[in-house]
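Form 12-C: Joint structure prediction
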Amino acid sequence: MTKIETGDLHTHIFSFSQQEVKQFATLTGDTNPLHLDEEFAAQTQFKKPIIHGMLSASVISKILGTEFPGGGSVYLQQSIEFLRPMYVDKQYELRLVIKEIYTSNHSAIVETTIKDIASKKMTIRGEAMIMNEEYF
Amino acid sequence: MTKIETGDLHTHIFSFSQQEVKQFATLTGDTNPLHLDEEFAAQTQFKKPIIHGMLSASVISKILGTEFPGGGSVYLQQSIEFLRPMYVDKQYELRLVIKEIYTSNHSAIVETTIKDIASKKMTIRGEAMIMNEEYF
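Section 2 - Result
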């Protein structure tokens, strides 16, 4: 197991399909028409359906809990600013940077940002605090 | 449509099944064994598998986007403190309270807390900022 240190960076490229957005709506019951209804979305500032914020943010949790640092990570806190809409079939990059490690309670603060790869614009900005007894 | 005012409260009772946790893991790729592996979870402080934090938090988004205030809500920010683990087949109550309304940009700050109904203990505490052109 590689030791994780302050300043360490991990990136992950991802996208979601409209089918996955539909599955998330069914599973969570979040049927806000902004995510599912093309006609409704066309009349908003977004022009077309946008991905649920919580589905996009779930990528942060997935990577913290499976890749960086890895399995066993426990979420303590997450702040999220949804800066720009995110759309299906577009490529995004998650960027995680270790800001602080607290070895006394095996926790760390991680900067969590997502950007649109094509435009290079940030879509989500936030910070996580996680605990992982193996890595911190 | 009922006008929404500062101080208004909305509650929602919910639970998740292990099947729903598995579906969330499959959909998002968040296969952290803490959520899926009984043997792994038994060796942690939690003793049994816990619900993904982002799945629990998705209830906040669902209710903001479908019931209170309702369809068309756009997430601007969400902060979440995961205070205690949440388990499948247990009943929880989401409580939303309107803290501030900014009519100039149709947005509001909403206090978002979840408690375990049996123990009355808070499991999630946080705050959302949302925009909804119809209601604010």
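Section 3 - Comments
The two ends of chain A are 12 Å apart (CA to CA). Strands of chain A lie at 9-14, 74-82, 92-102, 107-116, 122-131.
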